[in-house]
């Protein structure tokens, strides 16, 4: 309705501006000028209200492209603005349960964060059950003249989740979304991967925590922290600082989250988004 009133106000303001030149008498000109100003101000006010009420949606258009160096991402615009450059209206703080991955699951951040998301949605399941059920890529760790050969986290959990003494990494959004569908009707599991960070804000604004892949520094990593190993599905760019958290809120400065390592509870929006983009814009929620 706001957008309709906005366009009507614009049309009326233009009408009176045009008719101003054709008015036969001075008092009519003055009246038309006044009406034109009033409707122009009305149009500006309605436009401002509409933008504020749809801030999160409008931000999505600014995030059409993915960062060039993101894992599994598309070609990006090097000048893509970050979400923090936009005004964020209000704040959100969701009361999701905090579950710690340690000591049982040293590499179990992804399933632990999923347990938090499921528990928030009144689904009683613990991290250990999810750890057993998540898909795995059984490809063994090997080092050859071609480099490291290991599994594909897009296919299933790679390596040992339970012991740092053995090689391992983690798992990405695909297998986690499929695991969630074992507990929730698949129509309620929404894989947001590849969408703009504003979609994360949108879900939070609707009281939906968001599972994401990030890194342990909550900021963009230098290329030196990444390596490429060979998998049965082709080369895979990875970082051993890969991590997963459940985002639970935001304000105009920070993203708030439940970290299964219990390291931190917040990070500056721009830094967190940069890390999330670099890790392939992976996100899942339930509703």
From TrEMBL:
Residues 94-260 form the Peptidase C39-like domain. Keywords: Membrane, Transmembrane, Transmembrane helix. It comes from Virgibacillus byunsanensis. The keyword Transmembrane helix applies. This is C39 family peptidase. It comes from the Bacteria. The chain crosses the membrane at residues 32-51.
